[in-house]
Fold this sequence. Notes:
homodimer
Amino acid sequence: MSEADREDGTGRDDGAGRDDGTGREDLGAMFARVTRRLVDAEAPLLAENGLTMWEYVVLSRLALGAAPNQLTLAREIRHDKTRLIKLLDDLQRRGLVVRRPGAADRRSYTVSLTDAGRALHARVRAAIRAMEDGFLAGLDPAERRSLLALLPRLAPRETPEIAED
Amino acid sequence: MSEADREDGTGRDDGAGRDDGTGREDLGAMFARVTRRLVDAEAPLLAENGLTMWEYVVLSRLALGAAPNQLTLAREIRHDKTRLIKLLDDLQRRGLVVRRPGAADRRSYTVSLTDAGRALHARVRAAIRAMEDGFLAGLDPAERRSLLALLPRLAPRETPEIAED
DNA sequence: TATTGTTATACTCTATAACTATA
DNA sequence: TATAGTTATAGAGTATAACAATA
């Protein structure tokens, strides 16, 4: 593929400095920059509620339903199973999640949210959602709809394995 | 435990797991997932060419024009000035970049690409661009145009300060 | 023999402080 | 006094190996 592809992209100069002749910035660089801005904007909201990013990721996953065991939970959120241990210890000590002996396999523990955990997640998520609305404020409704429809197709989420609570 | 257990909630199953009632996934989570997929896809392309991600970031910035000094270079790519040292040492040892005494300020060094550095960057960038084309293959032309127009607006790049070569 | 939860260890990445030479 | 480049050190984050209990 050559420079002629600029026809279905953006061939214009967006004022981001001297053009190096390649037409547009790397997709990875652009996505990374947006991601970093969102992470930076989420950081204070999480800190206010005493959560780290990984803890929030765990709560978000568990909000979909109980995880059958810690290993699948770790795989689904792409976190090391070894680091998940202390993280769950902390969340459980704070009464946000519970580990229960697995029904079939005595080695494993199902992990699920407590009422307090579900409430905290809902509160933080609402704050994050409000921040995101501001983040997307510059887009008109059609653009916003297009973006929200596109993103899941570019990186589909793995179907979580849900256990009985 | 049958898969049909997931149907008991909303009845909707779009492949993204049980709905937790909040409508859509966090924007940050979606962007982070896309970014990770792109980074993972770039990794082998960079490794084949003996570059780390940060080294490629430096080359990409310098492809826009020489940096007036290392400090502004570090700030523009959001990298620690202390870690930039060894990184530039390496790139210079390999003949990809050159540090030249600053014209006005004798403390500073301009940083610019050598011909070899420019060639390597162009080669790697072409490989990455080809990968990106595959990555966006699932989108129709209108969606692709919309996405590429949106991204720079969601996280504008800082205008780089360009020095004379 | 393989897997789940766990601990311990080693390694990488990142952040901070401090030094030098110039300004 | 402040800044550009550099070095050294401490800390956080991450990966790997190994172990006990169970399958």
